[in-house]
Design goal:
With 547 residues, the protein is an alpha/beta fold. The chain contains 25 helices and 10 strands. The strands form 2 sheets. A 5-stranded parallel β-sheet has the order 2-1-3-4-5, with helices on both faces. It has a 5-stranded mixed β-sheet with strand order 7-8-6-9-10, sandwiched between helices. Helix 3 links the parallel strand 3 and strand 4 (78-83). Helix 19 (406-446) crosses helix 21 (464-475) and helix 20 (453-460) crosses helix 21 (464-475). It is flat, with a radius of gyration of 37 Å.
Length: 547
């Protein structure tokens, strides 16, 4: 550890040097700053101290200004300062500028030892944290390709939806998309899957299975060297490709045919390749991926070892793959917990997606709304919630069948989901009250047992986290505090009415340790059990015939 001394008193500097060299030989004194009129920053830059041992008076009225300047320029440098008792507040406030500790003048060896030991411990901890960070960064750098695959997989699965987040990911992982500013953009997804994979792997070892897919990836990457594209292994039988460029369907088919022939020739693997449409925005990459995936449902008709673009099998379908089905799932969960604000945000996304596809097909809106309501109903039934019978009261079938336009569907769901969510919130409040009362009853009857939130939660059918949440909302205290209050109240009664020893009372109300019982009692009542008993007994007045 490097140490810089800052004091105008040369005798102090000399004494510190002598003592530290003898008591702390592993601390290197790199210099002494003795002229407060000079700028200390150049000397810090030159000597590179970890710690500055400084006299508060040395900096005069500019104490905070100087320390702030040093802290901003060298945030890792720390201070130990010393001054008089009248300067204690200044020294304490210095903590926000990197002061580890302070001492009073005249400095005693014991105080200096304490401060230097604290500094050594601090820098050892910092060095260990830095070492762990460096190892983690090294490990991360070595595994960066794995994180790139995770990013691309999340993108294809529709988990990354913001345009900025997608383009930032392209840039961070140094992907080739959009690097040529003059080139026209377009994003399409190819999915390459091994034919009859389940039968094939029966005769393969794990290593053979893994080596095959990675061998295929190398072949594909070699072909893509001249394209702006990214490919990765998503499963041991599938390799997705994201292709960037305004390619026509014919051009994409020709490229996919090259993949197919090369994989058969170089890895002896027959594959089927599904191709999604080309879209202008990177946010539509998941749409193209869903289209590519859908083409495999046509392999029986179109043939295995084939190239199947979505345009060949579903030339007019512009709705299915753009509709954010994952968001619909979120809507279902949000409705069941009564979060209407979240429901409304998702509704906007769903119906905006439907509106982008043009006028809806006949009965499409009615069927879409009914599907959403059916999923809400099914989820409620799966969770065995007693509100299942209420669904059709809020979403009448006859009204759903009349829906025609996108606006009709949105308005219907917005209005009825708001009413349904209000009902769910009210129902949940009643459930919360039930849990609250059940927990209170259980505690009042079993307060002397060993305390366990988990056990109480299991007895009444909830989680420890929810039970604590309920108590905090309704009692303004955590369950632990409530149990302690019940125990203390029981102890108070026994202390008032009997002469039972405190050790026995402690056990009776659930404490194994009488010292802990006394500390809890004092915390909640403000006096010890003995003081409480004495005070309560002093209130008892003698009957008239004894006066």
């Amino acid at each position: 550890m490097n140490l810089l001394l800052a004091d105008a008193d040369k005798e102090n500097v000399k004494n510190f040097r002598t003592y530290i060299k003898g008591a702390y030989p592993h601390i290197k004194i790199v210099g002494a700053f003795e002229d407060a009129t000079r700028d200390i920053l150049p000397m810090i830059r030159e000597t590179r101290p970890h710690l500055i041992l400084a006299d508060v008076r040395f900096f005069g009225g500019l104490f905070f200004t100087r320390f702030k300047e040093v802290h901003e320029a060298f945030p890792d440098v720390r201070f130990v300062v010393y001054g008089t008792f009248s300067e204690a507040e200044y020294m304490k406030r210095g903590r926000e500028f990197g002061v580890l500790d302070f001492m009073y003048r005249p400095v005693k060896p014991a105080d200096l030892n304490r401060c230097l030991d604290l500094a050594v411990k601090h820098f050892k901890k910092e060095a260990e944290a830095q070492r762990r960070t460096q190892l983690m960064e090294k490990d991360y750098t070595e595994r960066i390709s794995q994180y790139e695959d995770i990013f691309l997989r999340s993108l294809l699965d529709g988990h990354i939806t913001k345009s900025r987040e997608i383009t930032d990911g392209f840039s961070y992982f140094n992907l080739p998309f959009g690097k040529d500013e003059e080139a026209e953009n377009g994003y399409s997804v190819f999915l390459i899957r091994i034919d009859h994979y389940k039968r094939m792997v029966l005769a393969m070892t794990e290593m053979e299975k893994h080596m095959r897919i990675f061998g295929m990836l190398n072949v594909i990457k070699a072909i893509l060297a001249d394209y702006r594209a990214a490919s990765f292994v998503r499963g041991f039988n599938e390799i997705p490709i994201i292709l960037n460029g305004p390619y026509t369907t014919e051009e994409k088919v020709l490229l996919a045919d090259r993949f197919k022939q090369a994989l058969l020739s170089e890895t002896d693997t027959r594959v089927t390749i599904g191709i999604g449409r080309t879209y202008d925005e990177p946010t539509d990459i998941p749409v193209s991926a869903r289209e590519a995936d859908a083409t495999f449902g046509y392999r029986f008709r179109m043939g295995y070892n084939a190239v199947i673009p979505i345009e060949f099998v579903e030339p007019t379908n512009k709705i299915t793959y753009r509709y954010p089905a994952l968001r619909e799932s979120r809507l279902v969960y949000a409705a069941v917990v009564g979060d209407f604000a979240y429901c409304k945000g998702i509704l906007t996304e769903l119906f905006d997606a439907l509106a982008q596809t043009g006028p809806p097909a006949e009965k499409l809106i009615a069927k879409t709304v009914m599907t959403i309501v059916f999923r809400i109903s099914r989820y409620i039934n799966e969770q065995n919630l007693p509100i299942a019978s209420e669904i059709m009261r809020f979403f009448p079938t006859g009204d759903m069948l009349k829906l025609v336009t996108v606006e009709d569907g949105y308005t219907f769901l917005e209005k009825n989901l708001e009413e349904f969510c209000a009902f769910v919130v009210d129902y949940n409040a009643k459930q919360s009250l039930r849990l609250h009362m059940a927990a209170k009853k259980y505690v009042q009857e079993n307060y002397y047992e060993s305390f366990s939130v988990t056990r109480i939660a299991a007895k009444i059918g909830t989680t420890p986290e929810n039970l604590n949440k309920v108590f905090l909302e309704r009692e303004k205290v955590m369950l632990f505090d409530y149990v302690m209050w019940v125990r203390v109240n029981a102890a108070q009664k026994t202390l008032r009415e009997t002469a039972t020893d405190e050790e026995i009372i402690a056990v009776q109300v659930g404490f194994d340790d009488v010292k802990y019982f006394r500390s809890i009692f004092r915390k909640y009542i403000g006096e010890t059990p003995a003081e409480y008993r004495l005070r309560e007994r002093s209130k008892i007045t003698a009957p008239p015939f004894l006066e």
